[in-house]
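Sequence in, structure out.
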Amino acid sequence: MNTKTVWNLKLLYKSDSDPQIEKDMKAFEDACARFEKKYKKSNYALSAQSLRAALKNYYETVRTFQGSKPCWYFVLQTCLNSNDAKSEAQATIYRQRITEANNKIQFFMLNIAAVSKGEQEVFLTDPILAEYRYKLKKIFINAKYNLSEGEEQLSALLEQTSYTMWTDSQDKVLNQQSVNYKGTDVPLSKIIAQLAGLPKKDREIVHQKINSTLKGIAVGAGAEINAIYNYKKVMDERRGFSKPYSSRVLSCENDEKSVELLVSLVTKHFSIAHRFYKLHAKLLGEKKISSAHRNAQIGKISTKFDLESSIEILQKAFQSVDQEYTTILNTFVSNGQVDVYPKQGKKEVHFVGV
């Protein structure tokens, strides 16, 4: 297999100045405007037939015109290099345009969510809407937490400045950090991942350096957490969520009682974790486990996991589930859709806010 180890962003666009970028963005904006004009004053939830036609049109609009593609191109550029100010600015511009275009069709799902309980039951059981039953069920469950159309539009616009930009800025700061190990400056993310496998004395020294590095940016991190916390608190209260985790539980399609029971059981049996770390400390020759050694390896692992052997392990695992997963993996590694190695300035990809 021809394995590529860096992202090939030319799969998206030829370059930053590729005219197709603006064509794709404009196509999405125009599609949303056409959808708004067609359905804004239409009673598309009058019958199962009319609702099905509207839903089909909606998803064709969202899927056919890849409005998020231009934004993702520049977002991925910044993931490879968080110092790329030009790409960061372009990603912000396109993210804003996507939000404004999506706001034009915000009314659609809100109107569906507003139908009566009786109509909801009819739509959920009508075979004509079988293809959309799952989506409709989610819309109706979330209905009581919806805001007005204007408020939802404002929320979408503010999320970029009140959440996305805060997390992006902190990611940028973190990805500029490095720790000196044996005369070499190692990116923070890489040295944290390697910590558990280092020799004991090295592990303790590196752990102290990691802590010192993190403390150096703690003020900014604290401000970020406070901003995100207050943004979430305001939105939760406005929407009517009773607990800090209510919206998360709902989005994960779980129920609060089950989650609370799980937390209760785990808390009740903390003694199991205490026994584990007590044994871990004993095997490491320590009286008490410290943070530096919490994930330290016990014994020696002779097997070497290089890129090729790791891919083979994944191929076998996916193959046991479905051949399609293996095909997707092979396509990714041969096309340059996996960026393998850590480097300073490289950051994680967040599939949120685009």
